[in-house]
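To whoever is on call:

I kicked off a structure prediction for a single chain this morning and the downstream step that reads the tokens threw a length-mismatch warning. I double-checked the sequence; it's 332 residues and nothing unusual in it as far as I can see. Pasting both halves so you can look.
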Amino acid sequence: MPLQISRNDINSIKVDAIVDPTDNFFSGSGGTDKLIQEAAGTKLQETISEIGYIDNGTALITMAYNHPNARYIIFTCGPIYLDGNHNEAKILSSCYRQSLELAKEHDLESIAFPLISSGSFSFPKGEALKIATDTITSFLLNNEMDVYLLVYDKESFDSANKLYTDIKDYLNENLEVEEAKEERSTNNSFKFSSISSFFKPKKENYYDEEQSFFASRFIPDESFSETLIRMIDEKGMHDPEVYKKANIDRKLFNHIKNTKNYRPKKETAVALAIGMELDINETDDLLERAGYVLSHSSKFDLIIRYCIENGIYDIYRINEILFEEDQKTLGC
């Protein structure tokens, strides 16, 4: 996946490079900086001792030495947050941009970032997350790389902003309605249990978790890949535009497009709908070709429905909301 927000420990994720958010003197005095330097061992200590100093907003790359899961370590020094009026945002964005450029120069395919400056440097976590995703996604528009952004707590999400609060209200309202329907259905079932025991109604043949019809129940006129190709043409879009906006790897996208009977995961199919900016009816049609529907009782489905119906097609903003709500994120 080009950009994935994850709760993994940075020393546990296997990538070409991990980013160490250090201070100007590589002190390794605490937090992520300490954990990475300890994992890489004494040879890294010797290397950074020779370098000695790093400016705020810059990045440099070293070998990862004894680190178990990375080949390189990219050091960057973020800003200490004062009041937001001392170029803190610009410096923080530079940390991500320079780190990504270094990874590109060394032909790396994957990189993992912590949320830079959001710990002891006191950068507000919600703002830090937005700067990180904006900078990374801007880079990914013109570059191919798998980027992991590791976020450890929900404080990183600006849950006070209007989009979050609106979606929270929408979820609460719709889930309460569904719970009321379910309760009424349960009561009615109890009242008529003696009658219903004489009947053996045919069981609906679908998956509860995915709200997905089995292939034997649904034979579309077009395959998923054929529908995808048609919709891309109808939208006047080019393939790279679609898979980048859908947060999908180019190789997987080509495999989906060129495999007639391919059945994607639900979150991948939804991501493609977002990437093409389909309306809700078009999205329903595309999902149906893969055997899925958007229900009114699933938190994931309701978030997607809300975003599409309100013209929100920034997949990274959508993924932040899904991540905060402990749902699967979009892409591959």
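Update from on-call: the warning came from a stale cache, not from the record. Cleared it. Sanity check on the structure: Residues 194-219 have pLDDT under 50 and may be disordered.
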